[in-house]
Known about the structure:
mainly alpha
Amino acid sequence: MIYHLLYPLKGLIPYFNVFRYITFRTIYASITGLLIAFLFGKPLIRYLKMRQVGQPIREDGPETHFSKEGTPTMGGVLIILGTVIPTLLWARLDNPFVWIVLFATISFGLIGFVDDYRKVIRNHSEGLRPRVKFSLQILCALVVGVLIFFWAGKDSRIMVPFFKKVTPDIGLLYLPFAVLIIVGASNAVNLTDGLDGLAIGPSIICLGTYMLFAYVAGHVKIARYLQIIYVPGAGELAVFCGAMAGAGMGFLWYNAYPAEIFMGDTGSLAIGAAVATVAVIVKQEILLAIVGGIFVVEALSVIIQVTSYKTTRKRVFRMAPIHHHFEKAQVPEAKIVVRFWLIAVILALIGISTLKLR
C-alpha cells in the first residue's frame, strides 16, 4: 500500500524512489511486524487471561509441564496480524504471489484457530476431529497449489539441492507434490510447538533463509548467475518473509522461557503453511527438508514412535515428539530449546550453501 501511494510521487519527491527497492521494504516490513507483535502482546495476554483461554496440558506429558497449565494460548493471532498488516503496507499488492501466500497463512491460521477454540473454550479435548482438520488442510493446500501452478506459468519443475542441472519436470504431479509439502510442513511445525520458544526460533531462521531465496529467485541476473530457476515476481515474497520473521521475533519476546503465551495451532499451522508456500513458489521445495530439518526430525520421531509401538509394542523414544524424549532424560527445557535453535542455524547455513555447492 505504501509502495502504491508514495512510489508514484518519486518525480516530485526523489526520496520516494527508495520504495522501489525490495530490500528497503523488507527491512521495514520486518520492523513493523516486530512492533505490532511487541506492542499488542501484553494486551492480548491480558485479554486471554481474562477470558481464561488457557493451554490444557497432557496428563502423560513431562512433569515440568504441569505448571504451564492455564498459560494463554492462541497467540498465533499475534503472529498472523504482525505478518498480514506489514505485508499489506510494504509489499506490492499487484503481485499475485503475495496474495497466494497471504491466503495460505490466513486459511491455515483459521483452521488452527477453530481447533484451538474448540479445545480451550468449548472444552473439546481433541479440538477438530483429525479427519476434518486434515481434509481442510488438504483442500486449502490444493487451492494454493493450483493458484501457484497457473500464476507461475504452469512451471512444474523442481530443483534438487546440490545438483546444478537436475530440475525434473513432474507435470501434473506438481499439484499433489505441493499439497504434500504444504500440509506436511504445517503439521511438522505444529508437532515442534511443545516447549517455550522451540517452534518460533527455527521458524524465524527458516523465514530468514527463504527471504534470501525469494530475493535471488526473483532477481533475473542473480538467478542466472547462480543457475537457479528464475521466478518473475518471487522477490516480493522477501517482504512477506521479513514481516513474518519480525512478527515472530516480537512473539518470541513473550514466548521465551518461561512463556507468557503459546502460539497454539493458530500460529504453528499458519507458519508452516506460509514457509512451505514460499518454498514451493521459489522452487526450493526439497531444500525445505534441510532448512527446516528440526521440523522434519520432530515429525519423523512421532511417525517412528507410533509405527514402532503399533508393530512391536516397543517405544523407540522415551516420549515423542523428540524434544520430550530429551526432557524425560532430564535435560533442562531452556537448554533443549537453545540447542535446537543452534542446529536450525547450522541447517540454514547448509541450505544457503547449496546456492554454490552444486
